[in-house]
């Protein structure tokens, strides 16, 4: 087996750390230790307390926390594969519903499988009275994220399985995928209805009850009353959502798994992901990017704005990505959609500002040296606005597509040994004794 040879200069001991497919195990690093010192007698002791070497990785920049078979990303070569199908092939030949099944259950669905899930989802999409009541307590112009959490919380409180999860001695879902699947399908239904109710409430529209013959996307647009008015929206989002359905262990998917590792139910776990999804360095960047575009207003003001960013006056939101050191492969596919819906895109003058930023930034050494490029979420947001959505609804709607991927990871975690996620810290303040 390949291994890493480590010489510990503190003790003179050497260690062979196995390398498995480019990874070493943190537990093997933990075996590298120095003997504990008895400070009173100043001698080495056989301590039971581990003094093993630890890895400090703030922001998890080089640490894998799960083994997964769902999505493969190579950020250097610009490759994304879902269950080993490349994203381009899926984008051109399938719709979102197929991808949802592929990610969660590992294969492309039959019509009978689609119908079965549609019925289960639509059943969960019927909101109890408490959900609509909670949402109507907000002002209509309230921030979307707290409304999402409130709606999901109201759904959780009305769900018997969610409530039972916290009162059972044994794990409710681990190794019981049939029980997990019911809960998972219901969670997606709750996300869809919460988003549709918020959309209707903010736009003063009537909510349309779900239709069990429709797909997840078909139903959310149906409940919003959009597909009845403009079928193009479903056609466009059926492709765009494929690109956002999963992106392996993002900040929000990690939050879902982190919460899930406490044996929580999937509704509560997904709520943790929703919160992270709205953060400014994650999905929330879209709102900030959009606000910046509106402030810039016209392409001629772009150089002044970018120079201010370079002087440290804030970040260029919608730019940069932790994983991609080359072009995000989703951007090419988003551009295909943008040219398909060119007429609708051109109606938004901010797209010209965004393109001017892209042109300026792509030739500027600051952005080139740091590999900073427009991220797929920024460009995708123009498709949402072209389809008639207000910017404030974009993250909420895209979190419905992403909750599918996050729940695929949650389901996968149920087939692995139970292990509470609990990172370590390095304590750096002085100790009195
Ligand atoms: N604008 C200006 N400078 C940037 C930007 C940006 N958008 N992103 C990174 N940088 C600079 C940093 O200042 C840093 O410069 P330095 O080396 O001189 O200190 C360097 O690039 C590296 O930045 P990090 O923050 O260390 O990179 P990291 O990989 O941790 O960050 C992130 C990735 C958070 C996405 C970052 O690029 C960012 O803040 N972008 C803006 C927010 C955004 O668009 N987020 C959405 C990402 S997509 C998604 O999550 C849905």
TrEMBL record:
Gene3D superfamilies (UniProt xref): Citrate Synthase, domain 1 (1.10.580.10), Cytochrome P450-Terp, domain 2 (1.10.230.10)
InterPro entries for the chain: Citrate_synth-like_lrg_a-sub (IPR016142), Citrate_synth-like_sm_a-sub (IPR016143), Citrate_synthase (IPR002020), Citrate_synthase_AS (IPR019810), Citrate_synthase_bac-typ (IPR024176), Citrate_synthase_sf (IPR036969)
GO CC terms of this entry: mitochondrial matrix
SUPFAM superfamilies (alphabetical): Citrate synthase (SSF48256)
Keywords associated with the record: Transferase
Molecular function as annotated in GO: acyltransferase activity, acyl groups converted into alkyl on transfer
Active-site residue list: 321, 377
Similarity remark: Belongs to the citrate synthase family.
Protein name as it appears in the record: Citrate synthase
Organism: Xylaria hypoxylon
């Amino acid at each position: 087996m390949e291994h890493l040879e480590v010489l510990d200069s503190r003790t003179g001991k050497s260690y062979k750390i196995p390398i498995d497919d480019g990874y070493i195990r943190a537990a093997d690093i933990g075996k590298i230790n120095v003997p504990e010192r008895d400070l009173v007698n100043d001698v080495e002791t056989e301590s039971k307390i581990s003094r093993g070497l630890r890895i400090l990785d703030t922001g998890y920049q080089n640490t894998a926390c799960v083994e997964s078979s769902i999505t493969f990303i190579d950020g250097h070569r610009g490759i994304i594969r879902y269950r080993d199908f490349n994203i381009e092939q899926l984008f051109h030949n399938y719709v979102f519903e197929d991808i949802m099944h592929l990610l969660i259950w590992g294969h492309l669905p039959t019509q009978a499988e689609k119908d079965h899930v549609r019925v289960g989802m639509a059943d969960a999409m019927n909101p109890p009275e408490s959900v609509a009541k909670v949402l109507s307590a907000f002002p209509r112009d309230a921030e979307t994220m707290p409304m999402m959490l409130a709606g999901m919380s109201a759904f959780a409180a009305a769900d018997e399985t969610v409530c039972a999860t916290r009162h059972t001695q044994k794990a409710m879902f681990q190794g019981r995928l049939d029980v997990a699947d019911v809960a998972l399908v219901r969670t997606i239904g709750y996300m869809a209805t919460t988003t549709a109710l918020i959309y209707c409430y903010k736009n003063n529209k009537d909510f349309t009850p779900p239709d069990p013959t429709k797909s997840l996307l078909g139903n959310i647009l149906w409940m919003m009353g959009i597909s009845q008015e403009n079928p193009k929206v479903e056609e466009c989002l059926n492709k765009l959502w494929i690109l956002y359905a999963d992106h392996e262990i993002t900040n929000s998917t990690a939050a879902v798994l982190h919460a899930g590792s406490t044996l929580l139910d999937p509704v509560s776990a997904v709520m943790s992901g929703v919160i992270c999804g709205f953060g400014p360095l994650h999905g929330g960047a879209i709102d900030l990017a959009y606000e910046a575009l509106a402030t810039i207003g016209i392409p001629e003001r772009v150089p002044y704005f970018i120079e201010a960013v370079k002087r440290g006056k804030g970040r260029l939101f919608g730019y940069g990505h932790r994983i991609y050191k080359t072009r995000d492969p989703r951007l090419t596919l988003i551009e295909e959609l943008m040219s398909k819906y060119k007429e609708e895109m051109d109606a938004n003058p901010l797209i010209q500002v965004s393109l001017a930023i892209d042109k300026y930034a792509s030739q500027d050494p600051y952005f080139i040296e740091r590999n900073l490029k427009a991220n797929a979420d920024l460009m995708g947001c123009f498709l949402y606005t072209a389809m008639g959505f207000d910017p404030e609804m974009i993250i909420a709607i895209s979190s419905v597509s992403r909750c599918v991927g996050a729940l695929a990871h949650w389901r996968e975690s149920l087939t692995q040994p139970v292990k509470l996620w609990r990172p370590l810290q390095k304590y750096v303040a002085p100790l009195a004794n």
